[in-house]
């Protein structure tokens, strides 16, 4: 029969086991302390991941390979949305499927609708799918300085309105001197009577900066214990975005005036920001296949504009692009406004934008 003394734990071992028990019990509570964030689309999700690095892991509601225009959420996505303390989406103009689920959220959930809340540069939807100089708005002749001593002139103008409010919404004054987005005329009055806004706002680096600043400010309010981390992370992301913009400027320097046609009109913010020459889109609504008349119009536009490239997208069937380019000198390429095949992460947005620039430069060279 073992003695009572033999069953006693030594003081050091008892302390170790007690500490382990405390940690085991504390771990679930600590995990719950991370802010629960749900973000609609991948490019915005990647920007938010940069702001929350080391603090929280935001959930993505629309996988990269899906289209936000007609997405059907899985039960797991719905749970992530319903449990989120902060929900970030572009707006009903892009993710219409989220309108009712977001309206049904708890009143405690903080909603960020970027199109209305983040003071973004906005453009009206272009009509007709065939554009002229008026539509894509080249205003050749700009100097754009980032405060880094670069005075490069790419021959495309960037509206001074994009220099507006470069504070980070969290007490930092970082004026990088950006003066981008051709005539993007800050504010919502575009002299356009149908009032529809092009929702692909993240493809402007200036808007990416505004998104980062706004999100960091909101998260700092909602989660003040981690406010300093959100702010310092945002500063790092903003610095990377400035370098990204300069790199893309250089990458596209030799192809700005070369016309091209895209599958659907998703790239207006990128085109205007970097002074490119789009000639049209195959379809205005990506959820509907273009008819024979539209295909013929685009084929004629390819020839008349001397378009060097027609771009498809990974989310949609490329067969129509082959039909449009048959018998012309136009090459084919792929542009992806969402970064469907690119890895997610804090650097994901930069990968997306560099991928767009590389695809354009390679096909138009």
TrEMBL record:
Claim: Ion transport is one of the keywords in the record: yes
Top-rank lineage group of the source organism: Bacteria
User: What's the source species' lineage?
Assistant: Bacteria, Pseudomonadati, Pseudomonadota, Gammaproteobacteria, Chromatiales
Residue ranges of coiled coil:
227-258
Output a single Gene Ontology CC term carried by this record.
Answer: periplasmic space
Alphabetical list of InterPro entries matching this protein: Bact_metal-bind_prot9, ZnuA, ZnuA-like
Q: Where is the signal peptide?
A: 1-31
Function, as annotated, reads: Part of the ATP-binding cassette (ABC) transport system ZnuABC involved in zinc import. Binds zinc with high affinity and specificity and delivers it to the membrane permease for translocation into the cytoplasm.
Q: Where is the composition biased (Basic residues)?
A: 139-149
Q: Which UniProt keywords apply?
A: Coiled coil, Disulfide bond, Ion transport, Metal-binding, Periplasm, Signal, Transport, Zinc, Zinc transport
The similarity comment for this entry is:
Belongs to the bacterial solute-binding protein 9 family.
Please name the GO terms of the biological process aspect recorded for this protein, alphabetically. zinc ion transport
First-listed, main subcellular location of the protein, grouped into a coarse class: periplasm
Its annotated compartments are: Periplasm
Compositional bias annotation for Basic and acidic residues: 150-196
- Cross-referenced PANTHER family, in alphabetical order? HIGH-AFFINITY ZINC UPTAKE SYSTEM PROTEIN ZNUA, HIGH-AFFINITY ZINC UPTAKE SYSTEM PROTEIN ZNUA-RELATED
| Cross-referenced Pfam families | ZnuA (PF01297)
Q: Which organism is it from?
A: Thioalkalivibrio denitrificans
One example of the protein's molecular function in GO is: metal ion binding
What name does the UniProt record give this protein? High-affinity zinc uptake system protein ZnuA
